[in-house]
Specification:
Length: 434
């Protein structure tokens, strides 16, 4: 009995010591380190995701920030801060056959030398000039392929337009004339951005395989396989080019850097647990962007990451739920959460600087169904498209919504800017606002 009593008293003593921050079980250094972590992530500790405004009245001084040109973002995916300051006083449309799978994928308008390029439901590719004049219209699909209604992913340099699609076809077009240069097929469909780099182009297929193809003839030079998903995701994979490496994500949350010349692995950073393999259909990463020597991205599983571009190590992580492409400029990161918050983050530390709720103008019952599609940052405003066909104009300085503009009834694409014109794609038209 005495032994039991002694053990009981000893356990009480040890337990009480472990809870005492002034005891020898806790060093001062450890307390300070713990406090630093809490200071960074305190805003999301009680809630699994960011669901409140932070420093909402804090103003961002735009006059001290430099402008960054939009067209320079091709290799790093970063749109930066553009020269756009449109009045949005008029809307015009170019209509085409309805893309039936538009809502399932993320088709994007591309801009090439002031021209606009998109496609329709049967794979017809359309090229317009800056005055909205149709320059050429080409289709290189058979009758059988047209019935499959492919979704196209596009990328171009000065001479060549590369097209890959959801029926595993890929081909090259003379961008000036629209003439076909060559066409080939892959074993698996594509669902990815494309990067053209040093007479080669790089793309990821639905099996999470990165392919390196010759720009000249489409011949495969090498490929790099990552973990194959159990269920194919409809979320488009993303690539950037950094220090002669191709850095890409896959549908299970891995970020991989591969040497662009040889296809050899440089580093790989898994960001999700293995349970994502079973849920990959619902898991969505944002596009990757490059900011100085960091790789930035987020996902709909409550993670916003900054990785070191040289080795893939985590610089910092925030619990932010978003799968839209972030924007970086002047050491600030801007993103929009899936719950409708504009969030501004310090790039170096990962600290949250400000968050503002953007959906107050909508009825409470409808807010849960509203999701951000994509945004650009102009001189003074953020232009954000939503899945309900609305465009929000948000003041960068204050975070307040200045305008809610109805573009259409349904989902529209991420906005893109050419001069003082803003374009969005819809399932049956390209919409131009100026």
């Amino acid at each position: 009995m005495n032994k039991i009593l002694k053990l009981f008293i000893l356990s009480l003593f040890l337990f009480s010591c472990s809870l005492n921050p002034d005891s020898s079980f806790w060093s001062k250094r450890k307390i300070n380190e713990e406090q630093k972590i809490i200071n960074i992530k305190r805003v999301t500790k009680k809630e699994e995701i960011l669901l409140k405004e932070i420093n909402s009245s804090l103003e961002i001084n735009l006059s001290s920030l430099k402008k960054e040109n939009y067209p320079l973002s091709y290799f790093d995916n970063n749109n930066g801060r553009t020269d756009y300051d449109g009045t949005l006083k008029s809307i015009s449309k170019y209509k085409f056959s309805k893309i039936e799978k538009f809502n399932e994928y993320e088709p994007e308008i591309i801009i090439n030398q002031n021209n606009i390029i998109f496609f329709d439901n049967k794979g017809t590719i359309l090229k317009f000039d800056e005055t909205s004049k149709l320059l050429w219209k080409k289709n290189y699909y058979t009758k059988v392929e047209k019935k499959l209604k492919p979704i196209l992913f596009l990328s171009a340099n000065q001479d060549i337009l590369i097209v890959v699609d959801t029926i595993a076809k890929y081909f090259a077009i003379n961008i000036k004339t629209g003439d076909l240069l060559w066409t080939k097929y892959n074993d698996s469909p594509f669902n990815s951005q494309i990067k053209i780099f040093k007479q080669r182009f790089y793309v990821v297929d639905a099996n999470n395989v990165l392919h390196c193809y010759s720009l000249k003839n489409g011949k495969e030079i090498w490929n790099f396989k990552t973990d194959k998903p159990l269920i194919k995701s409809q979320k488009k994979n993303s690539l950037i080019v950094k220090k002669n490496n191709i850095i890409f994500n896959n549908s299970v949350g891995d970020i991989t850097a591969v040497n662009s010349d040889t296809g050899e692995l440089v580093w790989q950073a898994p960001t999700q647990s293995k349970k994502i393999y079973d849920e990959s259909m619902f898991f969505k990463n944002s596009d990757l962007i490059s900011a100085k020597n960091s790789i930035l991205f987020s996902n709909n599983n409550n993670g916003f990451f900054s990785l070191d571009a040289d080795n893939g190590l985590v610089n910092w992580k925030q619990k932010i739920n978003s799968n839209v492409r972030p924007v970086f400029f002047n050491d600030l990161i801007l993103t929009i959460t899936n719950e409708g918050y504009l969030v501004i983050i310090d790039n170096e530390s990962g600290n949250l600087i400000r968050s503002n709720y953007l959906l107050s103008n909508f009825k409470k019952k409808k807010r849960k169904k509203i999701k951000p599609i994509g945004f650009i940052v102009g001189l003074n405003n953020i232009y954000l498209t939503l899945n309900n066909g609305k465009l929000l104009v948000v003041d960068i300085k204050t975070g307040s919504v200045n305008t809610v503009l109805k573009i259409d009834k349904g989902k529209v694409s991420s906005p893109i800017v050419q001069g003082q014109n803003l374009y969005v794609g819809k399932n049956n038209s390209i919409i131009k606002l100026n």
